[in-house]
Amino acid sequence: MRIKNILISQPAPNGCSPYEEIREKYGLVIDFIPFIRVEGLSAKDFRAQRINILDHTAVVFTSRSAIDTFFSLSEELRTTIPDDMKYFCTTEAVAVYLQKYIVYRKRKIFFGKGNIPSLIEAIGSKHKNERFLLTLADCHNPDLPLAFENAGLDFTKAIFTRTLMEDLSKINLRKYQLLIFYSPADVRSLIENFPDFKQNSTLFGTFGKATAAALKEARLEPCFQAPTPEAPSIAQALTIYLEKEKGT
Asked: What is the pLDDT of residue 1?
């Protein structure tokens, strides 16, 4: 089946994106339509977790929404974040977003390459004795805290954001030959919005083990997954799949 239209369950990227090259090279239409939206926890809900931000010396961010919520809650809770607090982010883009709230200094801001192993590598032996606060969503990827546990790091899991389903009733899914999901919540949103959905010839790509597991639990099958050693990102996994399809 020739792929012409792809739906990616993410907000449209700002600026340069690897999907632009893919779009041009393969003559595709790629639409970015979020299946979920994220909102920050209230101060009341955060307090219920009985977590003290200042018990930690480093904060781990996986998204910009987590950064917004962290600093908003800190202000609301009248918590002054010390200047020597360290920040670890999954990507450089997330790390750069910290400039909205703090002075960007390389000596206290570190980032990975978009996957969990690279984040653990960024921590390395130099920062292994920090007390980490993981800023998570209510439906977070369990692989992240598991990786911190396996690395022997001292960390606290804290929910900072909750995930809500978007209304997708106006979307014509039949238009797309390939749907790409980044989180288990995307799968839940698909099922909630389209309870009678059948895979038939629709293809799926997934990012993360939890997303692939959620898809299979919904009795749907992915045609490719990321990250893998050969494809650490969805863009790379998609390119590899399209090349294989082109050769058939």
From this structure: 63
Q: Pick the closest to residue 90 from 140, 56, 51, 129 (CA basis).
A: 140
- The verdict on 42 and 159 lying in the same domain is yes
Contacts of 51 (CB under 8 A, 6+ apart): 133, 156, 158
Q: Which residues of the chain have pLDDT under 50?
A: none
- pLDDT of res. 248: 60
Question: Residue 56 carries which DSSP code?
Answer: -
Question: Are the CB atoms for 190 and 35 separated by under 8 Å?
Answer: yes
**212 contacts 222 by C-beta, under 8 angstroms:** yes
Give the pLDDT score at 97. Answer: 94
Q: Cis omega before residue 13 (within 30°)?
A: no
74 found inside a domain: yes
Strand 203-207: give its sheet, edge to edge: 29-32, 5-8, 178-181, 203-207, 224-226
